[in-house]
Amino acid sequence: MAKMTVATLNEHRATMKKTYPTTLQPSPLTRIVVGMGTCGIAAGAQEAWDEMKKSIAEFGIEASVQMKKTGCMGLCQVEPTVEIAVPGMPTVIYGKVTAEVAKRLVRKHIVEKTLIDGHIQDRPAIDIVAYVKASEGEGGTR
Amino acid sequence: MTGEKEVAESRPIGAAPVGAAASGGMVAPVGAAAPGAGAAAGARQYLLVCGGEGCQSWKSEELFLALHQQAETLGVKNEVQIIRTGCFGFCEKGPIVKVMPSETFYCGVKPEDAKEIIAGRIAAKKDVERLVYKKEERLAATTRVPEGAFYNKQFRIVLRNCGVIDPENIDEYIARDGYAALGKALFTMSPLEVVAELRASGLRGRGGAGFPTGLKWELTRVAPSDQKYVICNADEGDPGAYMDRATIEGDPHSVVEAMAICGYTVGATKGYVYIRAEYPLAIERLKIAIRQAEEYGLLGKNILGSGVDFELEIRLGAGAFVCGEETALMRSLEGNRGMPVPKPPYPATSGLWKKPTVINNVETFANVPMVILKGSKWFASIGTEKSTGTKVFALTGKIRNSGLVEVPMGTTLREIIFDIGGGIRGGRKFKGVQTGGPSGGIITAKDLDAPISYESLTALGSMMGSGGMIVMDEDDCVVDVSKFYMDFCVDESCGKCAPCRIGTNQMYTILDRITKGNGEEGDLGKLEKIGQAMTKASLCMLGGSAANPTLSTIRHFRDEYMEHIHDHKCRSGSCKALVRFTILADKCIGCGLCARRCPVPCISGEKKGVHVIDQAKCVKCGECFVSCKFGAVVKA
After folding, report:
1. Do the Cβ atoms of B246 and A39 come within 8 Å?
2. Do B368 and B228 share a structural domain?
3. Are residues B466 and B488 in the same domain?
4. Most confident of the ranges B18-27, B44-53, B377-386
5. pLDDT-derived band of residue B388, with 50, 70 and 90 as boundaries?
6. Contact A91 B18 (CB under 8 A)
7. To the nearest 10°, the Cα dihedral for A103, A105, A109, A111?
8. Residue A60 C-alpha, separation from nearest chain B C-alpha, in angstroms
9. CA–CA distance, B169 with B171 (Å, rounded to integer)
10. In which element (H, E) is residue A116 found?
11. A38–B174: do the CB atoms touch at under 8 Å?
């Protein structure tokens, strides 16, 4: 990437907004986001990641599933945490995702489209970046 | 922002975003979503029954089964999936049922409500109004968030991207309005305007002291010099605090962007992130972030073609707590031994290499892009009058839902500990919460309703600190906790000034003998006297605040200290030396399990006969107490 000017940065941002919708924004793809801060990794997030990757390959659904890592979701008590957005289903955060649970997530949630019992966590906060957008008319920006 | 509109318009009809609020550019108040909103007609609904510890005691399991049964009876089994979840917080209002995708929140639901919910919400797609949790109930009178924002227990400004973006991908940060604040500052604002915006926002230092950030930048901006510096203090060392680590690991670019804005504002061309070497993942992600920002021309020479230069480097701290103190940090950064120097002169006029320097904490910096982008008015509308914005806390200890929480200033400790944290684990009783780590103090049950702000926590004898929040229950001994913090300060004192070097040691010696049952009459008076001297005479805040945990626990729990000194008794059983394990002759059946488990061994007795503990040899490990299946071993 060449050095940007403010104009090319803004153009780039417009493109990236389309490339990277958040899990609460619609996408034709299934998205899996794994909390991989120090806390998540220590609790076994890497094992969960590997297991899901393997399962996805076994089901042959690699093309429709995107996996990415993120930082800490803040739910230390229930690490490792995994957020899943499947088109047509509520986007949910699962906690205590061991390798065994990870495997089940792929089969039950992604392939069979049912939620898994006992692991869903409450979303801690609204998305402030999206909220800020809505208030733009209120004189937030100058 | 450009591009936002396209995202919104490209949404397929009937595929409105499920989950919470964020479709491109729109926000729907989550709890107030219209019935059936967010789902295509006829789509499946989901009932999430809270299966947390608190809700289980409210019979959530019975409710769960009743809902299943009703779904079957009413023939809507295939239209709904009913599952149990982890703890949703709000345990005192349990059991809680959340409906997806409508995001309705029912509270205080009883098994007999199952029929109404299934018939109403599921079959007729109409909410059971009397059970719906009103959003006002979630808002304390003292908590302010911008108008129209649904307050979902937490409000995340600093952590806005944590858990959302891939921290190693600058493009995701840019997609979330990243570096828009830098562009705005460089091309549409003068340095003076940036300072004015920050000052109007009321943003204060999140490292704990609460110095106004705008003023700090202004003092550095006006200081004449050929070279100035910007430093990010990421030497997070308080036991139990990990807010800054999580911020850098989850969103390193927010700090990078803020530092570049700061460089432009104060006229510094060079910045350093001083981060502890114990955070390898944070360091790695920060390195990647800096490299990506350089490649994009967001750091380095002529940023975005503005003619402004700013370079950023990482410096690793070697794990000394005192290096979190700004003057010691700068000495360490210069390559010298990390020891504090007296202030003034303040870093704003004479900091790193005696040049004017802005030094801010990670969390402070992470706020800056949002202040610039959305304006001071928006920011100042959050929190309290004098403490604006939010604060991130690392909630740990004897709490059900430990975690990283960000709440508006003005939120009460009760909301954080009981609503978000879910209360005390195992149904034990709340004793106190330590804020501010080894520099803070304990806050007890009577002050749980105090709204959090810099001033209120100081008035309660604690302090905001960097954000560690350690919750204690009745099994924790305040003397033992004070001893732990003092031990930490003895280790971490740099030894330069006598009050801290000698004072911490003396206080530790006294606390240690109290926990061992050797406390003397007048020890509390001595602790208070030494503590006050340290507080007044120490060179930096390490010594200046080291006595706080001890002084505040003496203030709130004098009777417990006296019990240790007079009665040689520790009511929580934490002070091992004061605990005595004995075997009740009438309950012991002589199974011998305790004797086999005893590591010393000091338990003897005939098979099937009463066993006895040799008190002289006992090391108070408690193995016998834990292993006995007949309640014959007692702790006193």
Report:
1. yes
2. yes
3. no
4. B377-386
5. very high
6. yes
7. -20
8. 25
9. 5
10. none
11. no
Q: Smallest Cα–Cα separation from B229: which of B330, B319, B108, B298?
A: B330
> Does the pLDDT at position B273 exceed 80?
yes
Contact B167 A78 (CB under 8 A): no
A90 closest CB neighbour out of B101, B157, B162: B101
Cβ burial, residue B237 (10 Å; 0-12/13-18/19+): buried
In chain B, residues with a C-beta closer than 8 Å to the C-beta of A96 are: 86
Per-residue pLDDT, B144? 63
Residues B501 and B534 in one domain: yes
- Answer yes or no: do B131 and B195 share one domain: no
Q: How far is CA B595 from the centre of its chain?
A: 43
Which of A1, A77, A109 to substitute to test the interface with B, most B CBs within 10 Å? A77
Distance from CA of B120 to the nearest CA of A (A): 20
Q: What is the pairing mode between strands A30-35 and A65-70?
A: parallel
Q: Using CB atoms within 10 A of its CB, is residue B130 exposed (0-12), middle (13-18) or buried (19+)?
A: exposed
For residues B370 and B254, give the distance between their C-alpha atoms in angstroms, rounded to a whole number: 9
State pLDDT tens for residues B462-494: 888 889 999 999 989 999 999 999 999 999 999
Exposure string for B140-161, b = 16+ CB within 10 A, e = fewer: bebbbbbeebbbbbbbbbbbbb
**One domain, residues B234 and B323:** yes
CB contact under 8 A, A123 and B172: no
CATH code for residues A28-138: 3.40.30.10
Average pLDDT of every residue of chain B: 87
Q: Look up the CATH number of the domain holding residue B409.
A: 3.10.20.600
Closest Cα of chain A to B373: distance in Å? 6
Structure tokens at B468: 């560690």
Q: Comparing C-alpha atoms, which of B575, B619, B577 is closest to residue B597?
A: B619
CA distance B348 to B616: 61
Mean pLDDT of all residues in A114-126: 88
The per-residue pLDDT for A66 is: 94
Does A20 sit within 8 Å of B165, measured CB to CB? yes
Q: What's residue A125's pLDDT?
A: 82
- Chain B hits for A134, Cβ within 8 Å: 25-27, 148
Instruction: Check residue B391 and give its pLDDT.
Output: 95
| Residue reference for tokens 């023939």 | B75
Cis peptide before B345 (omega within 30 of 0): yes
Going by the DSSP 8-state scheme, the letter that residue B419 receives in this structure is I
Cβ–Cβ gap B19/A85 under 8 Å: yes
Query: Which CATH number belongs to the domain containing residue B215 in this structure?
Result: 3.40.50.11540
For residue A129, pLDDT over 90 is answered with no
Q: How far apart are CA B1 and CA B175, in angstroms?
A: 10
| Most confident residue range from A114-123, B367-376, B437-446, B562-571 | B367-376
- Residue B361 structure tokens: 């904490």
Bridge partner list, A32: A67, A84
Which of B15 and A118 is assigned the larger pLDDT? Answer: A118
What residues of chain B lie within 8 A of the CB of A34, using their CB?
none
ipTM of the prediction: 0.90
Tell me what pLDDT residue B143 has: 57
pLDDT bucket at B50, cuts 50 / 70 / 90 = confident
How many structural domains comprise chain B? 5
Q: Which residue has the higher pLDDT, B145 or A81?
A: A81
Per-residue pLDDT tens digits for B596-616: 999 988 999 998 899 999 988
pLDDT number for residue A138 = 35
Which of A27, A86, A131 to mutate to probe the B interface, most B CBs <10 Å? Answer: A131
Task: Identify how many contiguous H helices and E strands chain A contains and give both numbers.
Answer: 5, 5
Phi-psi region of B608 (alpha: psi -120 to 50; beta: other; left: phi over 0): left
